[in-house]
Each structure stands twice: as structure tokens, then as C-alpha cells.
Amino acid sequence: MKIMKQILTVVLFLVVITSQAQRVPNESENIDYLMTFGKDASGDTGDDDHVQIFFFVIPHNYEEPIYLRVFDPEVGGKHDEIKGTANTKMKYSIYGGTGTFSNEDARQIDPKGEYKSGNLLFSKVFDNRASYDSKWHTFGPINPLEGEASDVVSGRVFKIIAESLTGDDGNGYRYFLSVDPNRNLSVQGANAFAYEYTFKLPARNTISHIYPFIDNSVVSITQSNFDFDKNGEILIYSVAKNRHVGSISGDNTWSSSKHDIVEGEKNTTMDVQILKRDASQNTMSVYIMNQYNQPIPFFAVPIGGPPKYKYDLNLNFKKQKDK
After folding, report:
1. Angle CA(12)–CA(13)–CA(16) in degrees, nearest 5?
2. Over its length of 323 residues, how does the chain's per-residue pLDDT go in tens digits?
3. Half-sphere exposure of 23 (CA within 13 A, CB side)
4. What is the Cα–Cα distance from 123 to 137, expressed in whole angstroms?
5. How many alpha carbons fall within 13 Å on the CB side of residue 59?
6. In this structure, are strands 155-166 and 89-96 parallel, antiparallel, or unpaired?
7. CA 15 – CA 24 distance, rounded (Å)
């Protein structure tokens, strides 16, 4: 627990001083939608557990009302994957207060134990009604003081859980933490993060990104991905590595690969690039563990920006002799 607290202190302290919340998934990630499938969906959909947990952290000194907006919360429209007749219900729940983030079960890759920790602030169930298709639903106003105050993250934390109640359809959706109930206006100094990420890749040959932050205590990471269908490549870039190949999964299977962390990669963001080979639809799940078998968070807005490889050019010029 002491190690985890040290890790989170280094990582998340930087969140509130270097970034502001944007769309989740963020535009820089080039990921179309978060995906959560109905609890009766098969594993080859790419969703391994039918629950998705995200955290939002805002600075301690922020005191104005905030709003958590969900785009396309229903299951049955343009951005969803329907299996026959749309029969899926999705529940979105927002938590604040003691235990929201500090409860260890909430920070794991599997939704087990007390992952619904904290005080329930808002909850709503959506079915296939078209009134929310490609529309925003706004939760709030939310009092910032209702978040869990945490010295570990140097801010106040809220949690949103999207979980399926029935059905086998796929729900594609987005989040935005806003200062306005009707528009997407960022909360200055805020960010969003998750420990496991289930998302729909763009339906085209393209590159998507996820951005884990590697703190000073990490000496190795293990990336794991599910149901990528062996449809491309996973490449890891950092300020010290220009290209590190990661293992890729097949249909309805997991694949993992371990990668050592060098000194120059510590306290920096990594860029895990997912290169999709064709224009097929594909949903996958990803998580990354450190050497302590603890999950590393992905950030919607990469801390310090996407990493740029630092080329080490050692060029020796010989003086040309006069003829």
C-alpha cells in the first residue's frame, strides 16, 4: 500500500498542474468511442467484463459547479453495435466522497469487491430509446466539494461507472467534464483516467494512442490486450525508445508482453500506438501493470504531452584538407 501511494502521488500530482479535461476519449487518442457491451455479450465483442470505470480529478481550489456529460448514452442508435434486436440497458452511476478513489477495489482492472465505493450522487438507466441517440445527457450540477479529497492526487476525485444490466448489444459513448450544462467547456486543471480501457477503434486504417504515465519507481511494465484480432501492430514509444513492439491478441483471446523501463523513461508519458490494418470494426480492451502487479492509469490528456523521441546523434566531422 505504501508503494502504491508513492506511485500515485508522483503520477497524479502532475495531473492537476499540467492538463485540463477534454473529451473522453480525447481527440489526441484517435479513438472513436468508449465501448461497453451488454452482460450477455460474448467475449469476441472485445469487452471482457461489461463494466467501465473512469475517474475525474479536479483541483482542490476549484469551487464552481461542474457537470459530467455523456454523449450517446442509449443503446440502439448510430454509434452502437446491435446484435439482432436492441435489448440492452446501460446504467451510468457517479460517485463522490470517502472511498470513491481511495478504495483499492476501485483501482483494479476487474470490477470486483467494493469497486462501487463512495457516495452515489447520480444514476440513470438508458435503453434503446432514440431520444438520446447522438445526443448529450448531463449529470449535475455537481458540487466540487462532493468529490473525495485526496492528498495522493492533490485534488478531488469523482468516479463514473458504466455497466450493462441486460442484453448483448454494444454501447458506444463519450464523456466530457464541463463547467456548463449545455456545452462542452473544460474544467481548468482537471483530467480523466482509467486503469482498464475498452474502446472502439476507428473504422479505417489508422493509428490510435493511449497514454500511460511511468513514474520514478517503475522498472518494467506488462501490457495486456484483448480481442485485437491480430489486426495490426502495437508499438510503444517513449522519449528513450523510438519503437518497441508489443504482443497482440487474437479473436477473443488475451496477449501480454513485458517491457523494461530505462532511466530516461521514468517520470514521463509513454505513447502506446495501436496500428489498425484495415477498415473493419473492432473493439478491444487494454491494461498495463507495473512490476508490482499494480495497474498503471491511462490519461485522457497525456501528462506533459505525447512523448517525443530524443534522438542521440553522435556525428564526427572531419576537417576537409585544402587541395
Report:
1. 90
2. 444 444 454 444 444 444 455 789 999 999 999 999 999 999 899 999 999 999 999 999 999 999 999 999 999 999 999 999 999 999 999 999 999 999 999 999 999 999 999 999 999 999 999 999 999 999 999 999 999 998 877 899 999 999 999 999 999 999 999 999 999 999 999 999 999 999 999 988 889 999 999 999 999 999 999 999 999 999 999 998 888 899 999 999 999 999 999 999 999 999 999 999 988 889 999 999 999 999 999 999 888 888 887 765 454 445 555 54
3. 16
4. 12
5. 15
6. antiparallel
7. 15
3-state secondary structure of 147: coil
Can you read off the three cell numbers belonging to residue 112?
470486483
- Give the strand pairing for 155-166 and 51-58: antiparallel
Radius of gyration of the chain, Cα coordinates, nearest whole angstrom = 20
Cell numbers given for 292: 508490482
Read off the pTM: 0.89
